[in-house]
């Protein structure tokens, strides 16, 4: 398998992971799956020199990471209440 084919499959995998994330009813799972898919798209975009793809998905990774931290902090504060 040449590198172009490998990166093509990474792009397909990223698409599937993002699609799976959008089927999640649990927001925490949605954010995690979407973060993984966007991360794969960042790698894919960089590999094929598609900088706009990499940039927008890097921004999505940051958004997902922000909300994941926010979710876990909220859960922690709820669990620490007497």
From TrEMBL:
Keywords: Membrane, Transmembrane, Transmembrane helix
Positions of transmembrane segments: 6-25
The keyword Membrane belongs to this UniProt entry's keyword annotation: yes
UniProt name for this protein: YgjV family protein
Naturally occurring in which organism (per UniProt): Shewanella benthica KT99
